[in-house]
Amino acid sequence: MRRTSLKTANCPVARSLDVIGDWWSLLIVRDAFRGLRRFSQFQKSLGLARNILTVRLRGLVADGIMELVPASDGGARHEYVLTGKGRDLLPVLLALRQWGIACFPDGAPWGSELVERETGRPIRKLELRAEDGRPIMPADVELRVVQTP
Amino acid sequence: MRRTSLKTANCPVARSLDVIGDWWSLLIVRDAFRGLRRFSQFQKSLGLARNILTVRLRGLVADGIMELVPASDGGARHEYVLTGKGRDLLPVLLALRQWGIACFPDGAPWGSELVERETGRPIRKLELRAEDGRPIMPADVELRVVQTP
What we know:
The structure is a homodimer of 149-residue chains. By secondary structure, the first copy, chain A, is of the alpha+beta class. The first copy, chain A, has a domain at 12-105: Winged helix-like DNA-binding domain superfamily/Winged helix DNA-binding domain (Arc Repressor Mutant, subunit A), CATH 1.10.10. Chain A contains six helices and four strands; from the N terminus they run ααααββααββ. Chain A has helices spanning 12-20, 23-33, 39-46, 50-62, 84-87, 90-103, and strands at 66-70, 78-82, 112-116, 141-145. Chain A has a two-stranded antiparallel sheet. Chain A is globular, with a radius of gyration of 18 Å. Chain A starts with 11 loop residues before the first helix and ends with a strand. At the A-B interface, α1, α2, α6, β3 and β4 of A face α1, α2, α6, β3 and β4 of B.
């Protein structure tokens, strides 16, 4: 089910969703953040048919979000790792995570937390902030349309 | 095309995507943030078939992200507005927006900016921060699996 491409849409939210607005693609990125690298690992985690997973992984590589690298054990298979652009999706995943925890707390207790690598301490929640750094609420924010010349 | 429900998945990212992981649903939420309220306004903005838009709006209402209110002009039609849970999606949209601007700058110049309602000044970018408030990069963060008893 492919729809109109929005890759060159005016709205950057639409451009992002064009690339990672597929439910499975973001879950693959999530799994890559938690250290999965092999096709078989993604397949086991997501319970996804091989052909669908193949298409999603190819798409993520084509869009520069993941890249193929030689297997870390020196074997014949390759592995999938996040590129810089892929790692830059962390705020998107973190925002989705916060919203999921706040709005759908009836899931099982979640089995992971995001920590700073160096200190092992949990990172802060994402916060909306005004230009001068004050924390603000979603209700304090509005989208202003900018007239283009 | 409905897939396994992840509403009660362990992972809060999966729970969120179960609800708003549909490309159109997040674009409807985006449009609601920029002030659209009527069925016809969403239809015009998204270029979406009536039946598909109807299903998406019903889903957003059923999930408590939008609600139906009487039309602001006192007419017979109703309008769709974001609930608190819907407004709480702003960090998700903002994270997608930032990523879209950074990674796909070849879209047309975007036609909007997010400003603080009271001051009219642009809000800050979302930032990853350590527990003590230091800004950190995605590469500094890791996902730690928590053993559940």
